[in-house]
Amino acid sequence: ETGVTQTPRHLVMGMTNKKSLKCEQHLGHNAMYWYKQSAKKPLELMFVYSLEERVENNSVPSRFSPECPNSSHLFLHLHTLQPEDSALYLCASSQDRDSWAGELFFGEGSRLTVL
Amino acid sequence: SQQGEEDPQALSIQEGENATMNCSYKTSINNLQWYRQNSGRGLVHLILIRSNEREKHSGRLRVTLDTSKKSSSLLITASRAADTASYFCATDTLSGNTPLVFGKGTRLSVIA
After folding, report:
1. Which whole number is the average pLDDT over B43-67?
2. Percent of chain B with pLDDT over 90
3. Nearest chain B residue (CA) to A90
4. Least CB-CB distance to B104: which of A2, A33, A41?
5. Residue B90 and residue B31 in contact, taking contact as beta carbons nearer than 8 Å
6. Distance (Å, rounded) from C-alpha B108 to C-alpha B105?
7. What pLDDT does residue A57 have?
């Protein structure tokens, strides 16, 4: 148990569906992240939020839409995805956005399959 | 890019042997971190070494950092089957204003 909880753990969706991934951290951290992990590729940073404000967006397609209603919760809304979006989506948190060099705490991930 | 590169991509050893994984990076850093990931799970932080440190220990883990060669190594001594996982290095930047960048990882298999 790392203090970062992701739901659902597994998700299968069609290309026309709309679904959401949820992340909740119980660590009192101020920064939260979405990473994408595809087979044989490095971990890709998608979005970063610090104190509920988006501070980094690595040119992610608009079919991925993040939402951070408060410092403990982070969502990734998915719509009209492509099969190549199938991956493990990892949420992470860190103490403070200014401490980029600090330790990241990861959730267990949401395995997404797009049919 | 700043990306770290782990070497080898895959490593298979017998239980009780030592496992060494290497990481190379391209630009100056403040610190380097190692993470572990069991198959299909999240990453877990193992150890952080700062740019002014040369070696750091944590239990059976030993990490070295050579900033002149822009490389780091992770040594796991007396390996166990439970050490089977992927290991990633992650680097920041000297300016400190970018998130961590991860490599592709080394897949370690420890055979009982």
Report:
1. 96
2. 76
3. B42
4. A41
5. no
6. 9
7. 77
